[in-house]
What does this fold into?
Amino acid sequence: MNIATQAAQIGLDWDTRTGAVTVPVYQTATFRHPGLGQSTGYDYSRSGNPTRQALEEGIARLDGGARGFAYASGMAAIANILLLFKSGDHIVVTEDLYGGTCRLFDQILTQYGLAFTYVDTSDTAAVREAIRPETKALFVESLTNPLLKVADIAALSAICRQRGLLCIVDNTFLTPYLLRPLDLGADITVYSGTKYLSGHNDTVSGLAVVKDPTLAERVYFHQNSVGAVLGPQDSWLTIRGMKTLSVRLDRQQENALRIAEWLSGHPKIRKVYYPGLAEHPGHDLLKKQARGFGAMIAFEVESPDQVEPLLMKTDVISFAESLGGVETLITFPQVQTHADIPPEVRTRLGINDVLLRLSVGIEDADDLIADLAQALAGY
Ligand SMILES: *Cc1c(COP(=O)(O)O)cnc(C)c1O
It folds into this structure.
């Protein structure tokens, strides 16, 4: 069945007693036992809650994995997956990584004996060269933030299989609607559900999907043991958002392409990064392996003193962190999302003092372009 259909119907048929079309919010911490040594399948909501389970089964279906897991945030999902590793293990990681993930790896997990090597994962050969005898996994963002580099998930998964590594893909920017990493050979996907999946800038959540049932059992043990689970209300909101994933993304991508083309022709814009533009280095690969180019755009203005006025002058577009929601947002990655990346790495990557990032929403594209035009006209 098509993903759009599967997504729209998450939670349908859950409550056969009443026939409720949406899954109820099971706002309960605990469940009555029918008898000694008996269970309804639910005992305590950290271990399992029906609303969360509807979401977990939903994302597992969308990604084609054995089992899905819902967490209190994207970071909680990533931290939980990293519990699969132990002191002495080494992991190869995308270099222009989401700042929060970089902070978790470098400032926390290194204290527990994990080691990380950062490489440009859009360069498959560079990944191969970074693998050491003690390497246990590759952690790759399918589309990176904010420079939108594209990783060849099929080729990287093949290398991982050959070398006995787990291939973990942060697929937040594309979602299963646009890219299904597990179909391409990856082992685990992780998501900030806060972004496109929830899609309304109203919920913080995280998801992970594991392809192999045995590995999924270990992840479940960690999820229940650590307990950073998503609550029933936020599980429900995430499901509600996911039902419209396909229509939102279709519109967001359409808007993003128009805006990227318009920015490319603007005399005050130095550079535009959008994989939907034919000149973007990841364009052909994404065209081959994904169903779209997403709705994130990065662009450079001419000089650093133009950044603040532009952020202050946009009106329809809000100056705010985060991405993937129906409202268009603009950020300044160097001081916001990527402040935790070491400055010399940022400079090498191109996350500089003139780079801005747009998360394109579902508003009318003409209104968004008019807003950018008036903000850029001001200086
Ligand atoms: C936002 C984000 C995260 C972290 O998710 P939270 O829900 O904010 O904890 C991880 N990876 C990517 C690519 C993100 O954009």
The chain has 14 helices and twelve strands.
